[in-house]
Specification:
Length: 464
């Protein structure tokens, strides 16, 4: 048992209590951030004349040495320390002696852990954005290649109107684009440094909080030291945004699973992204999509977990908040894996254009356009709706489609029909005429693609 406190205690901590309280088995993930924060802290302590230049140099050298040794495997993070902060401080003192005991001057583990977690989350926000960026690149490529790949669009999972694969993929592009923008909002809002808040009431040492903030690329210091150590809003915002990403991926997965089914056959998932059955030799299962859909639950779980943890906590720091870490780490790893795996699956999917087009031809997806045809010939829309409804009923009885009926049969239902109806309700016309902004018509789609490519260019430049 190795802990930083003990002076006022008269007996050893109970073993089970120690284990229950300890966090090193998960907060060792914050090792890099802990070193980075400590270096910034001591550089500032020296600048402010709180420690000497020599002491600062010794501490910085000690800390970088510990970092190098952990990275190379020479030093392992032993789990008999209470937390990562205790481990680093103990190792430092072991290596450089008394100067190491000055590192924690003007600091508490409360502001230290708040900083570590912020540094971690901030870097992950960037990484998750990069994963989403890759996915958006895949989507835009599919969109550009499939402006006239016709397919049925659905409402209530019933064929509704014809659309294109580009248009359907474009819907997901918009969702993941909003996810990127949400992450960027979170980054901006959270980018204030809590270091120097101390336990919760600041400190009497003349710290320069703006300086440490700028050393670590923060916009500035946080403005209330009590809030600085008690705030986990940015974690909640992150988990809410990760939940939304998972919800999008899960909806998309659901469609992939449906499209891949024997009944639809709109797509073939690549063998490299499918799995087989131990008993049924013919099976090729969409497990990646199913796992992504399934893992959505645990990311939502993380959000609910932290919201619940935070709801009854009085100001300022309370140990409950240690519970923020495991769920957040797990959710971040899960989401990154899901985006990467999903993107791999999507970019290798084979779209069966012919089957999609044939499917769009069936199921009366051109019924709205047939009604619009009559409207253009002067029939009021409500009457046209009724006429086409009767026409559909007639087709169902005859097991036919509207465009397969002869002009005589059509005229029998409404004398307004003329030979030009066939062109007016063809799949091509149905799609091409939909030119309002955001619609599947090729020129409308090209405009959306152009704007979205500019967006991708913009985030690409930000990445570099
Ligand atoms: N392991 C703790 C956490 O994650 C570090 C902060 C400890 N602070 C304290 N007052 N015991 O929250």
């Amino acid at each position: 048992m190795a802990q930083l406190w003990g002076g006022r205690f008269t007996k050893e901590t109970d073993k089970l209590v120690y284990q229950f309280n300890a966090s090193i088995h998960f907060d060792k993930k914050l090792f890099e951030q802990d070193i980075e924060g400590s270096i910034a802290h001591v550089v500032m302590l020296e600048k402010q004349g709180i420690i000497t230049c020599r002491e600062k140099d010794d501490i910085v050298k000690g800390l970088t040495g510990i970092r190098t040794d952990v990275e190379s495997g020479k030093l392992t993070i032993a789990e008999d320390y209470e937390d990562i902060h205790s481990f680093v401080e103990a190792k430092l003192i072991e290596r450089i002696g008394d100067a190491g005991k000055k590192m924690h001057t003007g600091r508490s583990r409360n502001d230290q852990v708040a900083l570590d977690m912020k540094l971690y989350v901030r870097a992950e926000v960037v990484q998750i954005t990069e994963c989403l960026h890759e996915l958006l690149e895949t989507l835009i490529t599919i969109m550009e290649n499939n402006l006239t790949t016709y397919m049925p669009g659905f409402t209530h999972l019933q064929k509704a109107q014809p659309t294109t694969l580009a248009h359907h993929m474009g819907a997901y592009f918009e969702m993941f684009k909003r996810d990127v923008l949400r992450l960027s909002d979170i980054y901006k809002r959270m980018n204030y440094c809590p270091l120097g808040a101390g336990a919760f009431a600041g400190t009497t040492y003349p710290l320069d909080r703006s300086y440490t903030a700028s050393l670590m690329g923060f916009e500035g210091p946080t403005l209330n030291s009590m809030d600085s150590v008690a705030d986990r809003d940015y974690i909640i915002e992150l988990l809410a945004s990760l939940s939304t990403i998972m919800m999008h991926l899960s909806r998309f997965s659901e469609e992939i699973i449906i499209w891949n089914s024997n009944e639809y056959r709109f797509i073939d998932i690549d063998d490299g992204f499918s799995t087989g059955s131990s008993i049924m030799p013919q099976k090729k299962n969409p497990d990646i999509a199913e796992l992504v859909r399934g893992k959505t639950g645990r990311v939502y779980g993380a959000l609910v977990s932290i919201l619940t943890t935070m709801k009854g906590i009085p100001l300022a720091y309370n140990k409950d908040m240690q519970e923020d870490k495991e769920v957040t780490f797990d959710a971040i790893e899960t989401v990154k894996n899901c985006i990467v795996l999903f993107n791999g699956m999507l970019s290798t999917i084979k779209f069966n254009n012919k089957i999609m087009e044939e499917s769009a031809m069936k199921g009366f997806t051109n019924a709205t356009d047939a009604a619009d045809y009559l409207v253009n010939k002067g029939v009021p829309f409500r009457d046209a709706h009724g006429i086409i409804g009767r026409l559909v009923l007639y087709c169902i009885e005859k097991n036919s489609s509207i465009d397969a009926l002869s002009i005589e049969e059509l005229k029998e239902i409404s004398p307004v029909f003329e030979a030009d109806v066939y062109d007016a309700i063809s799949l091509k016309t149905c799609v091409e005429k939909r030119l309002t902004t955001g619609a599947p018509g090729p020129s409308a789609m090209k405009e959306a693609i152009k704007i979205n490519k500019e967006f991708l260019e913009h985030i690409r430049n930000k990445d570099n």
